Amino acid sequence: MKNIQKIFISIAGVVILILVVVVSVISLGVFRQIEESAAIRKHNFIVINDTADLLSELKDAETGERGFLLTNNKAYLEPYLAVIGIIPEHVAELRRLILISAAKKHLDAAVPLIDAKMAELAQVIVMRRNNDTASALELIESGKGKLLMDSIRVEMKDLNQIEQDALAKSDSELQKGLHFLFFLIITASLFMLLSALSLVYFIYREKQQQIKEIIHAQTQHLLVIQEETNKQLKQVNTTLQISEEKYAVTLGSIGDAVLATDGQGHVTYLNAVAEQLTGWTIALASGRPADEIFRIINEETRQPSISPIKETLAHGTIQSLANHTILIARSGSECAIADSCAPIHNREGQVLGAVLVFRDVTERMKIDKCLKKAYEDLNIQSIELKRAAQAKSDFLGNMSHELRTPLNSINGFSEVLYDETFGPLNNKQKIYINNILTSGQHLLLLINQILDLSKVESGKMNLSLSSLPMKNLLNDISLLLADTVNKKNLKMQLEIDVNLPDIEADELKVKEIVYNLLSNAVKFTPEGGKIGMRAEKTGSEIEVTVWDTGVGIAVENMEKIFEGFFRVDTPFSRVTEGTGLGLPLSKKLVELHGGKLFVESMGLNKGTSVKFTLPVISAGVVLNETKNIGS
Description:
The chain is α+β, with helices and mostly antiparallel strands. The chain has four domains: 2-202; 255-360, Beta-Lactamase (2-Layer Sandwich); 365-458, Helix Hairpins; 460-629, Heat Shock Protein 90, CATH 3.30.565. 62% of the residues lie in helices and 16% in strands. It has 16 helices and 15 strands. It is flat and about 125 Å long. The protein starts with a helix and ends with a strand.
């Protein structure tokens, strides 16, 4: 009996598989036919629509010509002018689209008619432009234009009829394909349904037999399991007793106080710490309402606080005490506490009780108060420091402005004297005046840098942003130092990417950054050494590196180089001009632009590398604007 059922199941499965394959193959063929019919139908629609568009364009051109003839208003020529260029393109497109030879013959017949019609329209327009209205009217009244238009309509109508017939034929073939596919699907579905019902029936019979056998085996197995379960229950009871003992020991040994209740809020457990804080023993507290044992008030109002145990039992959620809660012990003593209360659930999620964990935080609150006072004191000191820093910046700014005015006069008069505007000078006088001019310029540079630093620190530095061609700027700055480089017999290497993009930046500030770094490289590189500059785009930034083979920077000085007025100690530093502000100011200017500046020393007498980044100009940014940078 089992073998017969298996044979029938196999046969039914094979029949279903064969039906699926056959239906799939035939369906694919029908679908291809439907797709081809749909493509032809779409093509016919396009041809018909393009034919209608061509006739519409001719009508628009004719209407525009009539309006111009009557009014001599050029505005009426707009429809004509709009189509004279696209009509040949539409004719060429129709010639490419039409696949039916009979339809092509009508198009070929219509093309010379269309050309003649357009020529007639152009002739009338020329006559009207030449104010020969009578000749234009005579040409129109001759009926030549109407005859041409009627002939074009006839040819287009015959062409459309051929395409409509082809469209109807495609629709008919499409409907036949759909009907055949529908019939095929229905027929195949019926056969597969019958086969599936047979298969289900035989599978059902087989499963019924298997279930009977499984039930018998499971019954025997359950008897064995029951015996094992009874043994395991005995072991679980023993383990549970041990666990309860361990649980009690654990709760009794933790550093926090633990209080447990039943579902009605009566005390069921207190550990040793809870007994100490509440003043109640487990023997006295057991079965009493938790509110009687755990009495809490608000430290500020001295009013009773809401018990977290009630909230936990009512809502089944974890609750915590508000700050500044005081626990009153049985003896009347008080202590500040912090706690959390969690519900005890059974397997069904019902709340069976609550467990409250709390601790004495009196000492911690004292520490918090001390920390709060220290923080307030520190905040006051911070405000005072900011005021002092602001006062310093304002003082430096005011002093710089006051000093620059007389210095500009000194430098101006020194230049005039040095140029011998007021008469010739001897060598000694020229040396003295040159010393005055050099010192004045050095002092003016120092004042300008101090002023810039004070502006940055006080948040008053303005950046005039514009689209800046970085490649040209770097080359221009390197040319400014070319004479100094040649005098010191240095070699300068430039590696500037030819495709370096523009950036959004303040041109004067960027020039100051590059000049400061290159001039530092020249100052601290002995004669015969090398300096260089690399520039390339990395991601959304431009990266510029200025390097030299000079004296380098000692490790202990790396943290000092960005401090104002600090200068690297070198064998020739006494004769090297500088204020010690160039590098700190350059770093701040780079950061104001949204970039970063890094300094790396290769070691003493091995050179230094300074790298800075600036963001590339971003799309949609309004350029040539002034931004106030700072607080």
